[in-house]
């Protein structure tokens, strides 16, 4: 009996900060990923890596494993992973027979996340900037200093 929460074993060499990314490869035989983005008609977004010798995959990720534990992403995310080749998926409940693959990357490896959202301009631009919906780093941070009896320090 297999346990769905057991990640893939280490590769031939142990890597301390290895992340195993589980998902499906969206690239077709020509190396192009086709994404239906919700626009009317047969409009699609195509992603192609054209950098000569760089090998990459457009990955629709469902989960990952890190330090012996499996994690599920809250929603599927699209990453462009360059460098490692895809391997047949092992562990964490992702079976190769269902079409899943895995990529072994390190925590310091550079990857690109592709975020797609389709809505009207009000939702994507105006409503996303309302207080409470912005990222915390976008809020102004101000420091106010009050003096004590005309002094700025307490001796």
Please tell me about this protein's structure.
- By secondary structure, this protein is mostly beta strands.
- The strands form 2 sheets. Strands 6-7-1-4-5-8 form a 6-stranded antiparallel beta sheet, with no helix packed on it.
- The protein contains 1 helix and 8 strands, in the order ββββββββα.
- The chain is extended, with a radius of gyration of 22 Å.
- 14% of the residues are buried.
Walk me through the topology.
Elements: E1 18-25, E2 32-36, E3 44-48, E4 56-66, E5 69-82, E6 87-88, E7 101-106, E8 112-114, H1 121-126
Antiparallel strand pairs: 1-4, 1-7, 2-3, 4-5, 5-8, 6-7
Which parts are unreliable, with pLDDT below 50 for 5 consecutive residues or more? Answer: none
User: Helices and strands, in N-to-C order?
Assistant: EEEEEEEEH
- Spatial sequence of strands, sheet with the most strands: 6-7-1-4-5-8
**Residue fraction in strands:** 25-35%
Beta strands, count: 8
Q: What is the distance, rounded to the nearest whole angstrom, between the alpha carbons of the first and last residues?
A: 70 Å
Helix vs. strand class:
mainly beta
How much is the average pLDDT? 78
> Main β-sheet, in a few words?
6 strands, antiparallel
Radius of gyration: 22 Å
| Individual helix count | 1
Report the helical percentage.
under 10%
Q: What coarse outline follows from CA principal-axis ratios?
A: extended
